[in-house]
Amino acid sequence: xxxxxxxxxxxxxxxxxxxxxxxxxxxxxxxxxxxxxxxxxxxxxxxxxxxxxxxxxxxxxxxxxxxxxxxxxxxxxxxxxxxxxxxxxxxxxxxxxxxxxxxxxxxxxxxxxxxxxxxxxxxxxxxxxxxxxxxxxxxxxxxxxxxxxxxxxxxxxxxxxxxxxxxxxxxxxxxxxxxxxxxxxxxxxxxxxxxxxxxxxxxxxxxxxxxxxxxxxxxxxxxxxxxxxxxxxxxxxxxxxxxxxxxxxxxxxxxxxxxxxxxxxxxxxxxxxxxxxxxxxxxxxxxxxxxxxxxxxxxxxxxxxxxxxxxxxxxxxxxxxxxxxxxxxxxxxxxxx
Amino acid sequence: xxxxxxxxxxxxxxxxxxxxxxxxxxxxxxxxxxxxxxxxxxxxxxxxxxxxxxxxxxxxxxxxxxxxxxxxxxxxxxxxxxxxxxxxxxxxxxxxxxxxxxxxxxxxxxxxxxxxxxxxx
Lengths: 337, 121
Description:
The complex is a heterodimer. Chain A is mainly alpha-helical. Chain A has helices at residues 19-80, 92-162, 167-265, 267-294, 297-320, and one strand at 334-336. Chain A has 2 domains: 19-80 and 266-316; 90-240, Methyl-accepting chemotaxis protein (Helix Hairpins, Orthogonal Bundle), CATH 1.10.287.950. Chain B has a 5-stranded parallel beta sheet with strand order 2-1-3-4-5, with helices on both faces. In chain B, helix 2 runs parallel beside helix 3 (61-70). Chain B has a single domain, classed as Rossmann fold, CATH 3.40.50.
């Protein structure tokens, strides 16, 4: 802070001088004070305006960014909310719900598939049992063939014994023997087919069982994994929703704070007007000083005697209209006519 | 098409703050530094609303309100006075001149936008 101008009411020798000289000195000192005060006032106004301009620019950018952030957050909130479907956009929540529905459908299909597999396996076993029954029945043909062979052999022997009379019977015995051979050949063929059929049935039953076990197990594992993923998605959705809500709250708070700051920064306009009034008063004081400087000794005595009354009058006039009544930066009133 | 608002204030920071608040809300803004310039802008442009300070050089806000009410195009244009002046005498003067509303500084952005929305036709 610079020092105050020196108000020296004495001459160089230190002796008191007359009223006119005293007034001259007083007015000179007053002019110095007022000049300094006006200069410092202008300087303070300049610094204040510059500071407010810089602060305002910062808040303007902050406000713009906050609004952009608010828009982004609103988009995120909409994407996470159930209202998203209304805008032809699927929300994360909806996606999770639909995924779980698909998983449940898949589970039901797997259950039905397992039931079908078990039923098919039972049918195969039944077919296998029926097939064995058929093969056992066919085994009876073998016994008949053996008995027929013995019968044909006996018939041939008896035909030989009968001689000429048994020739026709021998022909029948020969046909029976041929039929028996065909029957045995047929039976052997059936036995081969039975073995092949048994092996095929065994392979089919084994394959169906293994396939069923493998597929159901794989499907259950996949279903379990999808359920786990869906749960993770739900957790992620909840976390995202909570964080986006917190972000939205923070953005709203910043927006409110920027509004408060914009209101606070208006102190520059209010203070500028007040300081301009102070400047006007300093000009008035300066003019009084000039008048004093030009006053004669007689005028000086009269001025001094009139000073208290004049000052009271000036004060009353000064209070007559004050353009600024604010004492803080609280929001001002609003009145619609 | 966005509405156009004329902002008249001799303080640069006030012009900036009011203009920014209105622009962010989607309004088009024209600005003037005193009543005389504000009147010229209002005469040359379609203006839906005027927000003016009172204490300005050359032509003050009350004189601007009177001048605008004398213009056929702005006889019914809403005019909000945004000022540090808060005395009943000044408010009565503004009302008599034809102002639509009186807002005492400092304004809060939300408060200003609320009033603007209310008075815009």
